[in-house]
Amino acid sequence: MEPGSVLGVGTGSTVDLFIAALAASGIPLAGAVSSSERSTQALRAAGITVLEAAAVERLSTYIDGADEIDPKGHMIKGGGAALTREKIVADLADRFVCIADASKCVEVLGRFPLPVEVIPMAAPKLIRRFAELGGQASLRAGCVTDNGQHILDVRGLAITDPLAFEAEISQWPGVVTVGIFARHRARVALIGAAEGVRTLNFD
Prior knowledge:
- The chain is an alpha/beta fold.
- The chain has helices at residues 13-25, 37-45, 83-92, 123-132, 162-170; strands at residues 6-9, 31-34, 50-51, 59-64, 68-69, 75-76, 93-101, 114-118, 136-139, 150-155, 175-178, 180-181, 188-193, 196-201.
- The protein is globular and about 50 Å long.
């Protein structure tokens, strides 16, 4: 991270640790664009200025975790229900850096339930559509996103073509965002394991 830069920051337990490390590093940032109310609060508590996404034309780097990541840098995200804002901030960035532990690495996406942010009135229809694909979708109990919408978690999928699947589900009426990050895949992954951190670069 370059001193004086503006950083895109994701959401989740791994990012909470990153924000704490960022505050302890003493690197002076011009600010950060946050993907959730949770991260906004943590950044402000760390003394880091939070900027609105609308005030930023581009970011050099977006840093976030993942629920799953495959060998090409495609990810499933949204376990923390911030997938829509995460994708918006990722779209501003030239580079997505994923930080995750080794348990998140998979050969094929889908072991982790796929989060889909949906408009509530569309949920029953979308549950039926996922069933046609062999997926078992259910509403995440008690979850309302920062955007005021609901989350479906879809189990039983094997996502062998993440880019095509992301494009297809994104077209379904009532879907706000699907938690496949293929178009906005990681360019670098820092994978924590017992033996240390591995750096993976994706072309």
